[in-house]
C-alpha cells in the first residue's frame, strides 16, 4: 500500500493550490481527479464564460453607441465565438495535470472511495495518508420532474456547436442570468422561467429587478411564479408545462442550483459528516474526522462558492497541515458579481446606519458610453465607514473591487478624499458616492 503525507481529492483550483503548497514544502502529495484536470472554473465555468461574454460586452458597447459612431450592430456569431473559447479551454486539463506532475505531485485518474478513516481506494488500488483534503466541488442539480432527461446544464450550454433559435432557462440565479445574456446576444429568443418572483435572491431586490428590466429591454422574456411540472418532447421541440402555463422552445437549460460532489466518496467509512450542502466543517476547515479537511464548493458553509474562496481556503489548510498556523480561518470580504448586461455586483452589509442609493446614469463615467442604466448603493455604519455596496453598471466588477478595499480599510468619506485615483474612471467617482 502506497503511503502519502496528504492525499487531495479533486484537481480544481483549490485542490491544485493545496497540492502545490504542500509539495513545495516537502510533502509527498497525491492528487486524484475523476474528470477534467483543472476543475470546473477553467474548463467549463467562470473562465470560458468570461471569454463568451467578451463578445457580448463588445456588442453591448456598440449598441449603446449606435448613431454615435456605429450604425450596424451584428449579432454575436456563436460558432466563431465557441471556437475562440476552445482555444482557452482545450489545453487546460492536460496542462493542469502535467503541471502537477512537473511539480513532483503524484497524479491519479479515477473515482476514489474511502475504505477507512485513513485509507482510500482508486481503481482497485488502496492508498494511505496522514491527511486528506476533499476538494470535489459541485455539479448541476436537476428538477425531479417528468421529462427531466431532456434538460441540459450550463456545462452543455458552454459546448453547444450551434445556438438554437429559441432557448428556455429554468432558474433565476447567477448562471441563468449569465447564460441568458450570452444567448440573447447571438440573436436567440430567450425565456427565463422561475418558480417565484424573486430573482437573484442573494442580491439587493431593487437592483436585481433593475437588471431584469435591462435584460427585458434587450428582448429576454422573464416568466415569474411558474413552477415547472413537466418537460414534453414532440416534433423535435421541448415544451415546458406548468399550471396554466406552456412554453415551447428548441432547448431547455436547467439552472436551478448545484449540489456537492460527496455521494460517491463513501464518506461514512471515513467518519465524515455531510448535509445537503456538502461536507460539514469547523473553523479550521476540518470535517468530523479531524484528519480530513474540505475546501471550496463542496463545503457546507454560507461563504459564496467562488474560485478565489477555494484558493484562500486551500492556502489556509496547507498552512494548518504544515503546522504553520493553529488559528481559525478568517475569511476576508468576498465580493460577488453577476456578469449580465449590465453587470451586477455586491459586497458586505446591505443595511446600516445610513444607506445612500444613487442613480448615476447621467454621470460622465456612464454617459460617455451611453449606458442605459447605472446605479450605486453604499451602506455606512454609525462612524460613517463604508460597510457594504451594490453596483449595477458595465463597470460594476472593477468598481466592487475598489469598494471592497474601502470596506476592508474601514474608510470614511474623509479617507476617500485623501486618495488620488486615475481620472476620469469609475474609481475616481468614489468620493462622490457618499
Helix content: 25-40%
User: How many structural domains are formed by the residues?
Assistant: 3
> How many helical elements?
12
* Main sheet specs: 7 strands, mixed
CATH homologous superfamily identity of the largest domain: FAD/NAD(P)-binding domain
| CATH topology call of the largest domain | FAD/NAD(P)-binding domain
In short:
The chain is an alpha/beta fold and 434 residues long. It has twelve helices and 23 strands. FAD binds at residues 50, 297.
Give the SSE layout.
Layout: E1 2-9, H1 13-24, E2 29-33, H2 40-44, H3 46-64, H4 78-89, H5 92-102, E3 106-109, E4 113-114, E5 119-122, E6 125-134, E7 138-140, H6 154-158, E8 166-170, H7 174-185, E9 189-193, H8 205-217, E10 221-223, E11 230-234, E12 237-242, E13 245-249, E14 251-254, E15 258-260, E16 274-275, E17 278-279, E18 292-294, H9 307-321, E19 336-338, E20 343-348, E21 354-359, H10 364-367, E22 375-380, E23 386-393, H11 396-408, H12 413-417
GO molecular function, one term: oxidoreductase activity
Keywords: FAD, Flavoprotein, NAD, Nucleotide-binding
Binding site for FAD: 50, 297
